[in-house]
Amino acid sequence: MRFSVAGMRAVRLYTKLMLALALLVATMVGGSAYVMIERQxxxxxxxxxxxxxxxxxxxxxxxxxxLWNVDLNAVNRQLAALxxxxxxxxxxxVDVKYGPLAxxxxxxxxxxxxxxxxxxxxxxxxxxGQPIERIGAVRVVLNxxxxxxxxxxxxxxxxxxxxxxxxxxxxxxxxxxxxxxxGPVNRLEEMVDRIAGGDLxxxxxxxxxxxxxxxxxxxxxxxxxxxxxxxxxxxxxxxxHGIFExxxxxxxxxxxxxxxxxxxxxxxxxxxxFKGYLTEHPDFGRQAMSNVRVVDANSAAVxxxxxxxKQDLLASFPKTLGPEMTSTVAKALEAVGALGEGSALFEAxxxxxxxxxxxxxxxxxxxxxxxxxxxxxxxxTVTDITERKKWEEDxxxxxxxxxxxxxxxxxxxxxxxxxxxxxxxxxxxxxxxFGFDPEEGIPSLxxxxxxxxxxxxxxxxxxxxxxxxxxxxxDFDFRIVLPNGExxxxxxxxxxxxxxxxxxxxIIGAAMDITERRRAEEALRETQTQLAHAxxxxxIGQLTASIAHxxxxxxxxxxxxxxxxxxxxxxxTPELDEAKQALGRIVRDGARAGAVVDGxxxxxxxxxxxxxxxxxxAAVSEVIVLAxxxxxxNDVSVRMDLAEGLPxxxxxxxxxxxxxxxLTINAVEAMSGVEGERELxxxxxxxxxxxxxxxxxxxxxxxxxxTIEHLFKAFxxxxxxxxxLGLSICRSIVEAHGGRLWASANAPCGAVFQFTLxxxxxxxxxxxxxxxxxxxxxxxxxxxxxxxxR
Amino acid sequence: MVAQxxxxxxxxxxxxxxxxxxxxxxxxxxxxxxxxxxxxxAPDYIIIVNEKLAAEQMLKTxxxxxxxxxxxxxxxxxxxxxxxxxxxxxxxxxxxxxxTDNRRGGYILMExxxxxxxxxxxxxxxxxxDPSTPVSLERAEGVKDYITQAGRGKIDxxxxxxxxxxxxxxxxxxxxxxxxxxxxIWAGNDSMALGALRAVNARNAPVLVGGMGAFWDAxxxxxxxxxxxxxxxxxxxxxxxxxxxxxxxxxxxxxAYGGLNxxxxxxxxxxxxxVTRFDEIVLKRPESxxxxxxxxxxxxxxxxxxxxxxxxVDEPKAP
Lengths: 790, 319
Hints:
The complex is a heterodimer. Chain A is an alpha+beta fold. Chain A is 52% helix and 19% strand. In chain A, helix 5 (144-196) runs parallel beside helix 6 (211-246). Chain A is elongated and about 210 Å long. Chain B is of the alpha/beta class. Chain B has helices spanning 2-13, 26-37, 55-62, 78-84, 102-117, 134-150, 165-178, 190-203, 216-224, 237-249, 275-283, 310-313, and strands at residues 45-49, 68-73, 94-100, 123-128, 154-160, 184-187, 208-213, 229-232, 261-264, 268-271. In chain B, helix 8 (190-203) links the parallel strand 6 and strand 7. The mean pLDDT of chain B is 91. The A-B interface holds A 68-73, 95, 97-99, 101, 126, 135 and B 157, 159-160, 162, 167, 170-171, 173-175, 177-178.
């Protein structure tokens, strides 16, 4: 048998099964039949041999008596009886003395080949006691043809049975297969054909639970999916057409099949360098361009090209292709030539013309399908980018301005996108500020963190986490260390950006290099400190007489008390108690004088600024001690109204005291020319905002409203011999501590100078606030720039 | 031949004889017996033979007949006699039986052959008939009797034949091959003897051949000098039965002369010396044979009947 594989493929499944089965069964039956026939042959031959032997033995015994008696009838009868056997050729009896006596021929003709011959003697004892003597012999001749014929018959029978079995099996299996497989498969095929033909509501009957049933179930599932997919496809198509027509972008469907065929032919000719080819054959490009037909166009395209309607555009499309298109077409052809298995998007900006002949700067986009597909409906979009071009120019200009501004301000900006959690933008200036190479892209968080000063990393991370997690606006300073060891101070700001619906979209921020500013600020600060010191020294100088009096008084008292004590001791009976009291007063006055001196020394000494927690009432009390004599000298009564239980304030105690001292001296001086009661009231308290308020009120002439704001300017003075720096310094100090200092009119007369200081929670003891450096007021102190830890 | 001699005997004794031939068909014989039994005018006597053992049934049938029945030639077997009894017992009208003494026939045949051998040591081959027939065994017994009685010679082999010429030839040829020294062959009838003679001639052996029957062809062969001898005359048994019935009818009951069942010794040895006379007197002119001289009514004599043929052949014919 010979089948071509292709031929077999077309054969029906159950026919193949039937063929395989028939082959298998035929092989098995054939093999079995062969074995059986061979065994039967051996058996037949053996049986024939046995029969010959049996006949010979039988006749040898049975013929003894008749032969002895020469009973030829009996002999012949016996021979004739056996000669009827189908295998017999001849039976013959020979008398040993007489010779051939009887012969019987059987049905078989004598043939020299294939004979089985048996000869047996016939022996007989005539009388009892006589020796057995051989009286004759019997010869049996059988023809093996009988066995051969029997084998032939057997073979035919076996073959008939095998053929019948095969035919029966084939018929039964054929019917079974046809019924169990062929029928259902045909019905399945019919249904699948119907489904394939578009009848998506057709369903296969699930007739059984076997594989065919499963197949039917799956085909049904496939049909369901197909129906869904088709519905989706229709929906998509509908949407596509909706979009195609409604979208503002001009879309054309163009037939590139001829171009593709031309290019494929070139490729088949072994031309791989299309660019070179097109340069050498410019006609090819023009020809290709004219071979491209527009199949469809949307209304946006009709509008864009200024056509009357779609047909107008389809017919007149070649007009839109100006000479500028040639190079674009060449590039597009190159793209087609380079197409591989995947699709490719070709994009080029070119100049087209409307049907009215107006130039049109357009973005020309072609979505080429994979090379294996036909190119008969290639999607081409034409976007009028005339406006966009302008915008791009504007944008480029803005960007240049921004870059220049950033460069000038040494500010580097960035953006962080919430949805992806990645930094999406680093400005050029930011790369420069942080010392990164823009070529290497936006550095990782780890790389940035490495640049942060080790002392500021925790703060920086905390700030980053605040801004990303809590969307807080960020406004803080930190330092970075560049690889060359240069230290830079940056001021970071950021704020979240929300879209129109109020959803948080991204965070944008900037870091400004404020190193120079910080340096200038520190220089200013140093100057101010020196100025404040000079101011203090000058203030103390102003008070010298008073202070001398203040010191002299206890010294005088001490001398008087010492003399009294000596006297009490010089008595015959020393008055020890009195002496002791005098000595006690001496000690007290000494301490008092020491305190005054200490206070002066503290005010005069230039110490680094401190960030201690200060009890404002105590600070006020100490200063008043110094100013009291001066007040007294000017007939000014000093009254203190200190509120109980005020919170502590953070800052430099000496600077606070300088402010209070300045205000007190100013008040005393202001009242020096006033008739009538001169009263100085120093009051401490807390306002509604919880700030500590310190006010110094006088009953002097007051301040003209027009000059009030000028009071705090440097070198403005109302005094004949003033420098005009005191109040300016005071305001600097207060504002450096996060407070305000202002002046106002007092009732009924005089002026009130008061300042506020941010309070710390708690009273008279260190606050836990120091444990939160990020929240310390110093951080909100733009003037000082002093980190809290100092 | 039997009927011929019976007819001669009946004629010579003035008796009326009707012969019905049974053709050796026992069914036919039974029908014939029925027919005779129903005859209105019954014969006086009916002679039947036990051909194919049909006599038992015929006797039962004829028992209803007023005729008296006589059995001849073949006797009833012992079993048949046990069944229906003997003569004049249960079947009253069965009055008697006459058979040939075949044993005597064998005896005299061998006696003659011994005499012809002279001094040669007899080596005997015998061919008798069907072993199931009493006659063939009786004849062989007679031969054996003589050899035993003679005290010399030996039977090399006795074979059974089917009474035919061809069989006789074969039955002689094979034993002759086996026993080349055999010098006497006897056969149970003339046909087999003539067949054996052919085998002997074929071997050209010096063997004497004797047959039994004394029929025409054997007589002819003896006359030519081929066959040595034949002992026979069996065809006279019917004539002897007629004689016995004649005497019985005339008041001389054979029962007093040899019994109800008589074995008759009358066989005659025919050799080259007496063959011509035997032929002339017995075979060629049976009608002229004088059976009356054997009647006890006509010729008073004591003792059993003597049917010896010597009186007819050897003695000169009475005028």
